[in-house]
Amino acid sequence: MARGPADTGGVGNDLLLSLVVVTALAFDFTNGFHDTGNAMATSIATGALKPRTAVALSGALNLVGAFLSLSVAATIASGLVDTKLVTLTVVFAGLAGGITWNLLTWFLGIPSSSSHALIGGVVGATLAAAGGHAVKWHGLFQKVIIPAGISPIVAGLIATLGTYLVYRISRGVPERTRGHGFRLGQIGSASMVSLAHGTNDAQKTMGVITLALIANGTVGATASAPFWVIVSCALAISLGTYMGGWRVIRTLGKGLVEIESPQGMAAESSSAAVILLSSHFGYSLSTTHVATGSILGTGLGKKGATVRWSVAGRMAVAWLLTLPAAAGVGAASYGIAAGIGGDAGVIVVLVLLLAVAGMIYARSRKTAVSHTNVNAEWTGSVAPPEPEKVAVAA
Amino acid sequence: MNSWVDLHALWQIVVIGIIAGAGLPALFAVGLRALNTGATVTTGDTDTDTDQIVGGSPVGIAAAAVCFAIVLAGIGWGIYFIVAGS
Known about the structure:
The complex is a heterodimer. By secondary structure, chain A is an all-alpha fold.
């Protein structure tokens, strides 16, 4: 199906391919700002780094991280769907699903997994295009769903233990000295998470673009990511990170647990260790799940720390919804694109996608969260300034 | 069961994760405490202390240097881990 009838048509191929590449880079960008908080939320919350310094540092390290390793770039889709059945339109529809879910959860300030959004979108579009047999369900469970359940628990346990030890050991050290020292340690550990994030997540988009190039016949089936793909993905995720997903940062840094610098350091160390180890064993797990588990763990490891379980519960619901919801949007996008047919169908979906993105952005301006108010007192909602009456669950 | 969960990988992630993810911050705390020995002899939450980190005890400083060196080595190992093809 690599040159299936829907995708051929001479010039149309190149147009479609460039649309897919641009959409993939757009996804990479949303991936960046959606996940800034995984590395930097705790450092921003404790004042170890000024908000804008934090996002700049994280952006730079994501850029470096994207170049450090390329070993998992090709594996993102190949173990989960039958790549022979994947067309450009499928990839495009999958990305549309991923972007939509990422924007929606960002608007709600929920740190959900960008990887799951992408995988869900691609799986949903593949389902709609080729049916259930094109999806490698065993791979999906073994490599994505089960690790997603286990990883936050492991990260949480390690962070709980780390927090407990750190407080126990540094008990005799005066408060201010301790804060000062751990803020330095926090910057170091958060930097490691940023680096690991760049390596992991940028490669996922590289994998998708490579998949599109293979589907289009531009490169051979066993080709690795071309250099321009690596550079553009690295830049997109780094720029996205620099934009700072302030809404998500706020939830992670202020909403979930009130964090002090020793906790922040324990959380980021646990995240970095779990992310690096898991990707070593070939699990494309979500940095978001790991970071959230770690932050929750530090709340449990410190005596008397507040853990807002209602916020954690809302996140858990979003995590469960991520795969099916992104899959739904991906499948619907494919349905529309294939129903209309050809390039026109894809362009219609693109216009719809832009409209949805524009709407979410416009709504977000009304309750803006930025580097100026990201650390404001948590009152039960993502947006701090207006006294809202939405604090039902809180 | 084993075709769903790779237990071999899982226990390694847990054990090495605990050593690196919880052990290194703990070691950092040990280093900080060692560095601080001799500075102020308060027991915790009093706010009368200064921002001074280095306490002045040579033994403490040496012990702290060892701790921080191990932590840095751990970070270096992590970066090597990424580059070597994680």
